[in-house]
Design brief:
about 230 residues, alpha/beta, Rossmann fold, 7 helices, 7 strands, about 30% helix, globular, nickel cation binding, Hyd_mat_HypB
């Protein structure tokens, strides 16, 4: 079974991309399943089910969804193996630009859209910088010049990534994307002992542990303050 991780900011078009790509892969008799990670709520699993795609979802609740991913990815892989999948796709919540739920030697995809703002590539951390493939969506809504400038900004941030433009509504580009994620992607039986490409945030403060009161006397643990004198 092959495994890929798809991440990206909310509303960037991840789910539409995945559904259209799976339609293309199904035509090649490739059995695909997906596990959607989110925080409090998602109905994407309903969209996947309507498309006839095997799906499970995991809601992290009060826990960071990317920490939740790291704590559950081995069980997810075993679920995929049990269902005899050829390809297992994990879709992250994309709620934190600092987090990067990518595993070393497992193909990583970041989805970002042209409407997110020309400086957005600079604002996204390891989620974009460490991706193997960057998919740029919603190119039909902007001009050719805007598409080229945005793609150039993406390439500046991650010069090693393969960049592909995809229309999530029509599916244009998904056949090529499907070939890209299946090519040179190793078969796995487990992810035990594999490592994340980038450490997740390790800050543990009083607010992480349930504190609700504002004030320095309530701020314990790993606290970071703005230095107004240096600005």
């Amino acid at each position: 079974m092959k495994l890929i991780t798809v991440s990206g900011p909310p509303s960037s078009g991840k789910t539409s991309l995945i559904i259209k790509t799976i339609e293309s892969l199904k035509a090649q008799n490739i059995k695909v399943g997906i596990v959607k990670f989110d925080c409090l709520y998602t109905d994407d699993d309903i969209l996947y089910e309507k498309a006839g795609i095997l799906v499970k979802k995991g809601l992290s609740g009060s826990v960071c969804p990317d920490h939740f991913f790291a704590s559950n990815i081995e069980e997810v892989v075993q679920w995929g193996k049990t269902n005899n999948l050829d390809l297992l796709i994990t879709e992250s919540a994309g709620l934190c630009n600092r987090c990067s739920p990518y595993l070393k030697d497992i193909k990583a995809v970041c989805v970002i859209d042209n409407l997110s703002g020309i400086n957005t590539p600079k604002k996204i951390g390891p989620m974009l910088k460490l991706a193997d493939v960057v998919v740029i969506t919603k190119g039909d809504i902007v001009s050719q010049a805007e598409r080229e400038v945005f793609a150039s900004r993406v390439q500046t941030v991650n010069p090693k990534a393969a960049i592909i433009h995809i229309n999530g509504l029509t599916g244009q580009g998904t056949y090529e994307f499907g070939s890209l994620i299946m090519d040179k992607n190793e078969e796995i039986d487990t992810v035990i002992e594999r490592k994340l490409r980038f450490p997740l945030p390790s800050a543990v403060c009083s607010y992480c542990l349930g504190e609700t009161r504002i004030g320095s006397s309530y701020q314990l643990g790993n606290i970071r303050k703005i230095n107004f004198e240096e600005q």
